[in-house]
Amino acid sequence: MTYHPEIERIARGLKELHERWKPHEAQVTIGKALIADRKKDVFAQCGRNFGKTELVSYLLWRWAWTFPGSENYYFSPYMKQSREILWASRRVQTFGPESWITKVNEQEMRITFANGSFLKLDGSDNVEAYRGVKPKGLTVFDEFKDFRPEFYEAYDPNRAAHDTPLFVIGTPPEFDGQFNQVAHSWAKDSSKAFFKFPTSSNPHISADWLDKKQAELTARGEQDKWFREYMAEFVRGGSKRIFPMLSEKMVKPHGVLFQSIEKDRRRLEWYCIADPAGASTFAVLFAAINPYTREVYLLDEIYEQRQEEMTVKRIGGRILQKTRALHKGEWRFIYDEAEAWFANEMLEHWELPFEPTQKSKHDKTTGLSLIKDVMLAQKWIVSEHCSKWFWEADNYQKDDEGRIVKKHDHLLDCSRYLLGAAHYSLNESTEYIREADPMFRGARIEDDFPGFTETGEQVDDWGY
Questions:
Q1: Do 288 and 393 have their domain in common?
Q2: What CA–CA distances, in Å, run from 90 to 27, 84, 118, 195?
Q3: Which residue from 115, 143, 297, 363 could staple onto 170, CB 3.0 to 4.6 Å apart?
Q4: Backbone angles phi, psi at 460, to 5 degrees
């Protein structure tokens, strides 16, 4: 048998690791995807107390030992969190044999190994520092639900340089976001690996303890928390969520929605509502309301966050393009009254007559309650083109004191302005009453003067 010193070195080191820590079956399943199957993208959606810290420590130490000169990174949502959870407790520094280590840098949270590899801890709040880093080892994203979205977008393309693996792990979030988007995408891709393990997958957690925890959360009306944090299921809901009745069933394919309202197109009231901004987000919502059935249709949106695209010249052109594509008839244009400059410039550049919202006369809570009522009445219909509106509504929440968080609510503000401008109520009017409509042009002479034709001639006995 040929002697391979490198294989012998790796085997000796792994034996030392395994003498210090034994993974449970679910941890082995995840590890095999990275180690045996050589998957470059592995996502583990796990319940609390699954054993995430031990698993990621093992994988990072093993990677550093197996691949000399490798550059291995661990990221939590915040650098301070990495320091408190893994570094200050010395869980990561002491996980493997001390003899493997040549240097520990406390300030950088970096462990340097004798074979030239290193393991470094940091947080997703340090976005700019990693835009140009091209890692040559394993990268771990822990508690991914709380990551800054721009960190993943900036870091992920850097892996292409050396085709390095990424292991993402964490419990599901309370609200939809990047965690679910990445999880759903990887779960559908056979080239990637996706796992979902509840807390009970860890044999070291007492079943009796879990039963008591479930009973406790159920008694407090927090079943959604049980499913998210212990069953590793993404569940919408929770006491902080402002629109718990929101559902994907409200969202319709754009073509299907337009086909359904085509017969009532002339009866609909058409609105373009703008929430102008110069630095954060410039939002515009395009909607229609059926004044008889009281159905509200959200048809399209503009959600611009690039400052160079927030000029009246650029936004105005997009507004005209969308309004003409949606409806060639009359529109009402509404804007946030706090931004008077917007109305003046839109009138000057595009001759669009934007009206102020008069939002000061309307209570925000009342406006949100009305939106809830419309949703519950199943009269709130959303086009698939309004993805940002749905994202805002799905993530709209209260803080721990029960106050509405003023964040990501630009299109939701537009929704309130829409109902306010329309003097909306849920009272239906299914009949088309001519006397109530001064613009009615469908009257005929024979309706008001029975026995006479449209030319004023008397009808004979034969009806002519």
A1: yes
A2: 21, 9, 16, 28
A3: 143
A4: -80, -175
